[in-house]
Design a protein that fits this description.
The protein has 306 residues and is mainly α. The chain has one domain. It is 73% helix and 0% strand. The protein is built from 13 helices and no strands. Helix 3 packs antiparallel against helix 7, helix 5 packs across helix 6 and helix 5 crosses helix 7. The termini are far apart. The relative contact order is 0.21. This is Drug/metabolite transporter (DMT)-like permease. Belongs to the EamA transporter family. It holds the Pfam family EamA. Keywords: Membrane, Transmembrane, Transmembrane helix.
Protein backbone atom coordinates (compact mmCIF):
# COMPACT_ATOMS: atom_id res chain seq x y z
CA UNK A 1 0.00 0.00 0.00
CA UNK A 2 2.82 2.42 0.91
CA UNK A 3 4.57 1.65 -2.37
CA UNK A 4 1.38 2.38 -4.32
CA UNK A 5 1.06 5.71 -2.52
CA UNK A 6 4.69 6.52 -3.35
CA UNK A 7 4.08 5.82 -7.03
CA UNK A 8 0.95 7.98 -6.90
CA UNK A 9 2.95 10.79 -5.27
CA UNK A 10 5.64 10.50 -7.96
CA UNK A 11 3.04 10.60 -10.73
CA UNK A 12 1.42 13.65 -9.14
CA UNK A 13 4.80 15.39 -8.94
CA UNK A 14 5.56 14.79 -12.61
CA UNK A 15 2.17 16.08 -13.75
CA UNK A 16 2.19 19.13 -11.47
CA UNK A 17 5.72 20.15 -12.44
CA UNK A 18 4.97 19.62 -16.13
CA UNK A 19 1.77 21.67 -16.07
CA UNK A 20 3.65 24.48 -14.29
CA UNK A 21 5.41 25.47 -17.52
CA UNK A 22 2.25 26.38 -19.50
CA UNK A 23 0.66 27.80 -16.33
CA UNK A 24 3.51 30.31 -16.14
CA UNK A 25 2.70 31.44 -19.68
CA UNK A 26 -0.94 31.93 -18.67
CA UNK A 27 0.07 33.91 -15.59
CA UNK A 28 2.32 36.15 -17.67
CA UNK A 29 -0.76 37.39 -19.53
CA UNK A 30 -1.66 39.39 -16.41
CA UNK A 31 1.58 39.81 -14.48
CA UNK A 32 5.17 40.72 -15.22
CA UNK A 33 7.92 38.19 -14.45
CA UNK A 34 8.92 39.71 -11.09
CA UNK A 35 5.30 40.09 -9.95
CA UNK A 36 4.29 36.58 -11.00
CA UNK A 37 7.33 34.93 -9.41
CA UNK A 38 6.68 36.79 -6.16
CA UNK A 39 2.95 36.00 -6.14
CA UNK A 40 3.67 32.33 -6.77
CA UNK A 41 6.14 32.13 -3.88
CA UNK A 42 3.89 34.14 -1.56
CA UNK A 43 1.06 31.65 -2.12
CA UNK A 44 3.45 28.71 -1.70
CA UNK A 45 4.84 30.25 1.50
CA UNK A 46 1.36 30.71 2.93
CA UNK A 47 0.44 27.11 2.07
CA UNK A 48 3.58 25.75 3.73
CA UNK A 49 3.09 27.99 6.77
CA UNK A 50 -0.42 26.59 7.26
CA UNK A 51 0.92 23.04 6.95
CA UNK A 52 3.96 23.61 9.20
CA UNK A 53 2.23 23.00 12.58
CA UNK A 54 0.42 19.94 11.25
CA UNK A 55 3.56 18.38 9.76
CA UNK A 56 5.77 19.29 12.70
CA UNK A 57 8.36 21.46 10.98
CA UNK A 58 11.28 22.33 13.24
CA UNK A 59 13.03 25.66 13.61
CA UNK A 60 16.35 25.64 11.72
CA UNK A 61 19.63 25.95 13.59
CA UNK A 62 21.45 29.27 13.34
CA UNK A 63 24.52 27.65 11.78
CA UNK A 64 22.39 26.49 8.83
CA UNK A 65 20.96 29.92 7.99
CA UNK A 66 23.65 30.79 5.39
CA UNK A 67 22.97 27.57 3.46
CA UNK A 68 19.23 28.12 3.73
CA UNK A 69 19.69 31.64 2.37
CA UNK A 70 21.73 30.23 -0.53
CA UNK A 71 19.04 27.63 -1.22
CA UNK A 72 16.36 30.32 -1.22
CA UNK A 73 18.43 32.50 -3.54
CA UNK A 74 19.21 29.79 -6.10
CA UNK A 75 16.30 27.36 -6.08
CA UNK A 76 13.43 29.68 -5.28
CA UNK A 77 14.10 33.37 -5.98
CA UNK A 78 16.66 32.87 -8.74
CA UNK A 79 15.09 29.86 -10.43
CA UNK A 80 11.50 31.10 -10.28
CA UNK A 81 12.30 34.61 -11.49
CA UNK A 82 14.65 33.53 -14.31
CA UNK A 83 12.30 30.81 -15.56
CA UNK A 84 9.32 33.17 -15.50
CA UNK A 85 11.30 35.91 -17.24
CA UNK A 86 12.51 33.49 -19.90
CA UNK A 87 9.02 32.18 -20.63
CA UNK A 88 7.92 35.64 -21.73
CA UNK A 89 9.26 34.71 -25.18
CA UNK A 90 9.97 30.95 -24.97
CA UNK A 91 7.16 28.36 -25.29
CA UNK A 92 6.38 26.23 -22.25
CA UNK A 93 7.48 22.92 -23.74
CA UNK A 94 10.73 24.41 -25.00
CA UNK A 95 11.47 25.84 -21.55
CA UNK A 96 10.94 22.43 -19.95
CA UNK A 97 13.43 20.86 -22.37
CA UNK A 98 16.10 23.30 -21.17
CA UNK A 99 15.29 23.01 -17.46
CA UNK A 100 15.58 19.22 -17.53
CA UNK A 101 19.35 19.61 -18.01
CA UNK A 102 19.76 20.95 -14.46
CA UNK A 103 21.32 17.74 -13.01
CA UNK A 104 24.29 18.19 -15.34
CA UNK A 105 24.89 21.68 -14.00
CA UNK A 106 24.59 20.38 -10.44
CA UNK A 107 27.65 18.25 -11.16
CA UNK A 108 29.53 21.22 -12.63
CA UNK A 109 28.70 23.47 -9.65
CA UNK A 110 29.66 20.72 -7.20
CA UNK A 111 33.02 20.34 -8.95
CA UNK A 112 33.73 24.09 -8.91
CA UNK A 113 32.65 24.90 -5.36
CA UNK A 114 32.82 21.79 -3.18
CA UNK A 115 35.51 19.83 -4.95
CA UNK A 116 33.46 16.88 -6.19
CA UNK A 117 34.98 15.15 -9.18
CA UNK A 118 33.15 14.91 -12.46
CA UNK A 119 33.26 11.57 -14.21
CA UNK A 120 34.05 11.30 -17.90
CA UNK A 121 30.37 10.58 -18.52
CA UNK A 122 29.36 13.76 -16.72
CA UNK A 123 31.82 15.85 -18.74
CA UNK A 124 30.56 14.41 -22.03
CA UNK A 125 26.96 14.75 -20.86
CA UNK A 126 27.47 18.40 -19.89
CA UNK A 127 28.94 19.22 -23.29
CA UNK A 128 26.19 17.42 -25.18
CA UNK A 129 23.48 19.03 -23.04
CA UNK A 130 24.93 22.45 -23.85
CA UNK A 131 24.85 21.61 -27.57
CA UNK A 132 21.20 20.61 -27.24
CA UNK A 133 20.45 23.86 -25.44
CA UNK A 134 22.16 25.87 -28.19
CA UNK A 135 20.01 24.08 -30.77
CA UNK A 136 16.89 25.01 -28.81
CA UNK A 137 18.03 28.61 -28.29
CA UNK A 138 18.67 29.22 -31.99
CA UNK A 139 15.64 27.35 -33.33
CA UNK A 140 13.45 30.44 -33.60
CA UNK A 141 14.29 33.75 -35.20
CA UNK A 142 14.56 36.83 -33.05
CA UNK A 143 17.03 38.26 -30.59
CA UNK A 144 14.50 38.27 -27.73
CA UNK A 145 13.76 34.56 -28.11
CA UNK A 146 17.45 33.72 -28.30
CA UNK A 147 18.17 35.81 -25.20
CA UNK A 148 15.23 34.34 -23.30
CA UNK A 149 16.43 30.81 -23.97
CA UNK A 150 19.74 31.69 -22.34
CA UNK A 151 17.85 33.18 -19.40
CA UNK A 152 16.11 29.82 -18.96
CA UNK A 153 19.50 28.11 -19.16
CA UNK A 154 20.57 30.37 -16.29
CA UNK A 155 17.45 29.16 -14.44
CA UNK A 156 18.58 25.56 -14.99
CA UNK A 157 22.02 26.43 -13.58
CA UNK A 158 20.36 28.11 -10.58
CA UNK A 159 18.19 25.04 -9.96
CA UNK A 160 21.24 22.81 -10.30
CA UNK A 161 23.05 24.99 -7.75
CA UNK A 162 20.07 24.60 -5.42
CA UNK A 163 20.59 20.84 -5.31
CA UNK A 164 24.21 21.37 -4.26
CA UNK A 165 23.23 23.93 -1.61
CA UNK A 166 20.62 21.68 0.03
CA UNK A 167 22.79 18.55 0.06
CA UNK A 168 24.25 19.24 3.55
CA UNK A 169 20.87 20.41 4.83
CA UNK A 170 19.14 17.16 3.88
CA UNK A 171 21.37 15.29 6.33
CA UNK A 172 19.83 17.30 9.19
CA UNK A 173 16.32 18.18 7.98
CA UNK A 174 13.52 16.54 6.04
CA UNK A 175 12.94 17.42 2.41
CA UNK A 176 9.74 19.22 3.36
CA UNK A 177 11.54 21.33 5.96
CA UNK A 178 14.27 22.32 3.51
CA UNK A 179 11.64 23.21 0.90
CA UNK A 180 9.74 25.36 3.40
CA UNK A 181 12.85 27.18 4.60
CA UNK A 182 14.01 27.85 1.03
CA UNK A 183 10.56 28.97 -0.11
CA UNK A 184 10.16 31.44 2.73
CA UNK A 185 13.66 32.80 2.12
CA UNK A 186 13.07 33.08 -1.62
CA UNK A 187 9.85 35.00 -0.99
CA UNK A 188 11.71 37.55 1.12
CA UNK A 189 14.36 37.94 -1.57
CA UNK A 190 11.71 38.68 -4.22
CA UNK A 191 9.91 41.32 -2.13
CA UNK A 192 11.44 44.15 -4.22
CA UNK A 193 8.88 43.07 -6.83
CA UNK A 194 6.00 43.86 -4.46
CA UNK A 195 5.21 47.31 -5.96
CA UNK A 196 4.93 45.75 -9.42
CA UNK A 197 2.66 43.04 -8.01
CA UNK A 198 0.38 45.55 -6.26
CA UNK A 199 0.14 47.57 -9.46
CA UNK A 200 -0.64 44.51 -11.60
CA UNK A 201 -3.34 42.91 -9.43
CA UNK A 202 -6.25 45.30 -10.30
CA UNK A 203 -5.76 44.86 -14.05
CA UNK A 204 -4.88 41.16 -14.08
CA UNK A 205 -7.43 38.77 -15.53
CA UNK A 206 -9.02 36.12 -13.34
CA UNK A 207 -7.39 33.48 -15.55
CA UNK A 208 -3.91 34.87 -14.88
CA UNK A 209 -4.54 35.13 -11.13
CA UNK A 210 -5.90 31.59 -10.96
CA UNK A 211 -2.80 30.39 -12.82
CA UNK A 212 -0.60 32.13 -10.23
CA UNK A 213 -2.60 30.57 -7.39
CA UNK A 214 -2.28 27.15 -9.01
CA UNK A 215 1.49 27.61 -9.36
CA UNK A 216 1.86 28.48 -5.70
CA UNK A 217 -0.35 25.76 -4.24
CA UNK A 218 0.20 22.87 -6.65
CA UNK A 219 3.70 22.72 -8.23
CA UNK A 220 5.50 24.79 -5.56
CA UNK A 221 3.88 23.47 -2.36
CA UNK A 222 2.10 20.17 -3.07
CA UNK A 223 4.58 19.20 -5.77
CA UNK A 224 7.57 19.37 -3.44
CA UNK A 225 5.68 17.62 -0.64
CA UNK A 226 4.72 14.79 -3.00
CA UNK A 227 8.28 14.65 -4.32
CA UNK A 228 9.71 14.30 -0.81
CA UNK A 229 7.22 11.52 -0.01
CA UNK A 230 8.08 9.62 -3.19
CA UNK A 231 11.86 9.95 -2.89
CA UNK A 232 11.76 8.71 0.71
CA UNK A 233 10.00 5.49 -0.35
CA UNK A 234 11.27 4.72 -3.85
CA UNK A 235 14.79 4.17 -5.20
CA UNK A 236 16.41 7.52 -5.97
CA UNK A 237 17.33 6.45 -9.51
CA UNK A 238 13.72 5.49 -10.17
CA UNK A 239 12.35 8.79 -8.89
CA UNK A 240 14.88 11.02 -10.66
CA UNK A 241 14.65 9.01 -13.87
CA UNK A 242 10.89 9.55 -13.92
CA UNK A 243 11.47 13.31 -14.11
CA UNK A 244 12.47 12.85 -17.76
CA UNK A 245 8.73 12.51 -18.37
CA UNK A 246 8.18 16.16 -17.41
CA UNK A 247 9.19 17.70 -20.80
CA UNK A 248 6.98 15.45 -22.96
CA UNK A 249 3.98 16.18 -20.74
CA UNK A 250 4.81 19.89 -20.74
CA UNK A 251 5.05 19.91 -24.55
CA UNK A 252 1.68 18.15 -24.91
CA UNK A 253 0.05 20.37 -22.28
CA UNK A 254 1.38 23.51 -23.96
CA UNK A 255 -0.02 22.31 -27.27
CA UNK A 256 -3.47 21.46 -25.86
CA UNK A 257 -3.78 24.44 -23.52
CA UNK A 258 -1.97 27.20 -25.40
CA UNK A 259 -1.75 25.92 -28.96
CA UNK A 260 2.07 25.97 -28.88
CA UNK A 261 3.79 23.96 -31.60
CA UNK A 262 7.46 23.24 -30.90
CA UNK A 263 9.70 23.11 -33.95
CA UNK A 264 11.54 19.99 -35.04
CA UNK A 265 14.96 21.41 -34.15
CA UNK A 266 13.69 22.27 -30.65
CA UNK A 267 12.47 18.71 -30.15
CA UNK A 268 15.74 17.29 -31.47
CA UNK A 269 17.71 19.59 -29.18
CA UNK A 270 15.50 18.56 -26.29
CA UNK A 271 15.98 14.86 -27.02
CA UNK A 272 19.75 15.44 -27.12
CA UNK A 273 19.60 17.33 -23.82
CA UNK A 274 17.53 14.62 -22.10
CA UNK A 275 19.74 11.85 -23.48
CA UNK A 276 22.81 13.74 -22.29
CA UNK A 277 21.47 14.00 -18.75
CA UNK A 278 20.52 10.32 -18.74
CA UNK A 279 24.00 9.39 -20.01
CA UNK A 280 25.74 11.63 -17.46
CA UNK A 281 23.75 10.12 -14.59
CA UNK A 282 24.13 6.51 -15.70
CA UNK A 283 26.70 4.23 -14.18
CA UNK A 284 28.98 1.87 -15.98
CA UNK A 285 28.48 -1.75 -15.18
CA UNK A 286 31.45 -3.07 -13.27
CA UNK A 287 33.63 -5.36 -15.31
CA UNK A 288 35.24 -8.55 -14.12
CA UNK A 289 37.52 -8.07 -11.13
CA UNK A 290 41.09 -8.38 -12.40
CA UNK A 291 42.24 -9.29 -8.90
CA UNK A 292 40.06 -12.35 -8.91
CA UNK A 293 42.04 -15.23 -10.33
CA UNK A 294 40.53 -18.13 -12.18
CA UNK A 295 40.76 -21.47 -10.41
CA UNK A 296 44.03 -23.17 -11.08
CA UNK A 297 43.91 -26.52 -12.82
CA UNK A 298 45.97 -29.62 -12.18
CA UNK A 299 47.61 -31.41 -14.99
CA UNK A 300 44.54 -33.61 -15.28
CA UNK A 301 42.30 -30.59 -15.66
CA UNK A 302 40.64 -30.75 -12.26
CA UNK A 303 40.30 -27.67 -10.09
CA UNK A 304 42.63 -27.24 -7.16
CA UNK A 305 40.75 -26.85 -3.93
CA UNK A 306 42.07 -24.21 -1.57
Amino acid sequence: MKTNRAWAALAATIVLWAVAFPAIRVGLAGYGPAALALLRLMIASASLALAAPILGLRRPARRDLPLIALAGLTGMAGYQFLLTWGEVHVPAGTASLIIVTNPVYSAVVAMLFIGERMTARQVVGAGAALVGTIAIATARAGVEIDRSAWVILAAAVAFGSYHVAIKPLLSRYSGLEVTAYATWTGTLLLLPGLPALVQAIPDATARATLAAAFLGVAPSALGFVAWGYAVARLPVTTATGALYLVPPIAVVTGWLWLGENPRAIELLGGVLAIASVAFANSRRRPGPDPQRKAPELTKRGSRVRR
